[in-house]
Amino acid sequence: MKYISTRGQSPALGFSEILLGGLAPDGGLYLPESYPQFNEADLTAMRGMDYAHLAFAILSRLVDDIPHEDLKIIIDKTYRPDVYAYIRPGQNAADITPTVKLEDNLYLLSLSNGPTLAFKDMAMQLLGNLFEYVLEKTGKTTNILGATSGDTGSAAEYAMRGKKGIRVFMLSPNKKMSRFQTAQMFSLQDENIFNIAVNGVFDDCQDMVKAVSNDAAFKEKYKIGAVNSINWGRIIAQVVYYFKGYFAVTENNAQKVSFAVPSGNFGNVCAGHIARMMGLPIDKLVVATNENDVLDEFFKTGAYRPRGSVNTYHTSSPSMDISKASNFERFVFDLVGRDSAKVRELWASVDSGGAFDIKQLLPKLADYGFVSGSSNHANRMQTIREADANYGVVIDTHTADGLKVALEYREVNVPMVVLETALPVKFEDSIIEALGKAPERPAALYGIEDLLQKHTEMNVDVAAIKQFIVDNT
Ligand SMILES: *Cc1c(COP(=O)(O)O)cnc(C)c1O
What residues are in contact with ligand 1 under a 6 Å CB criterion? Predict the structure, then answer.
């Protein structure tokens, strides 16, 4: 299995070769040359598998340059019930991603039971173990440099803490994350984790990361790596739970299921698209955005108009406050019939701050099952209240965006599965605003805000972060 770039001007590479990097050298994103196919007999065999076996059945078709007995060990180590322990009462931890039935043909898929209470753990935990394995095999090390507004940074740190050959330098905007998110990250005392609180906003952090990565000599010398949402290893880990969710709510493979996905960078729902391309009987993929509705606009009109960071709203589903969906190019590559010249033409415009319009392809979107919708703060509050009142289930603000749009696309006899992308305790203030009460907190996280914290403050200064990396490697 080789991986090619959506822009068609980079050499095809194996999985291990693209694992540690980000963009392809030509600026594109990696995708498999062709999608492995799961037929009816495969699906029947997979239906009875537990999570780790299912993950192996899927990932072993996408990874052929890690011996499969090693891949099996990595997967078994990653998808263990004790790692995804923050389940709801009555759920079975052995399911790893259990479902919650809200009403007939309406379900939540619990993806946020891992160490940092967001779905990003599902992929990041695998990445931590894959990175460690590949680095050890090649005798290399890496310094992961990233920027976070909360969820990505904590998921990366909990996945990489204590791992051999890996250091994490994570920039976050000083005093702008929630108290809970800050405590989650800054209370880590591991020697390979460096939290840097930047006196600026998230975009300043991201600009600092970009500036360091653009210095090719520094990047090479200090082995700067990334774990951002375009990482192919993260996408394939996410494909697995679409299969798991499908089997959980169906009895046979003739049935179809729709998934509603709270979206920002289009990573999570891109994995749904790939699951569908591999043969999973998905009916609709419902893309749910917040007020930052670039993707909703695209799926309704065919016009993709990314907005600059100054035009990105700060909302109460902050992990979706993104106006340029970094994984979207992967889907468009398939949509235009894998014509890389066409992708280059479209992104020549995007990369220079522009937009594109492919409304002539709108009818084709239906072939891929995509529909979309968006929500605002009032919708979110109301959806949280209704889920609590009607189903007795407290959901977080991002999941509320998903449920709100899911309800607009329900059909008789087609189960609708809403992906739960975070637990409500991560966004406590919004839950109190909606319900007048705090969400339940897992016992292991009581008092996390009182733990000893460790971090370094820094001004928006590229030289300072470079010096910090030099001093700590
Ligand atoms: C990252 C994140 C999202 C958005 O996921 P994408 O893959 O970027 O579309 C949604 N909800 C939560 C809670 C997140 O942390």
Answer: 118, 120, 151, 229, 262-268, 319-320, 398, 421-422
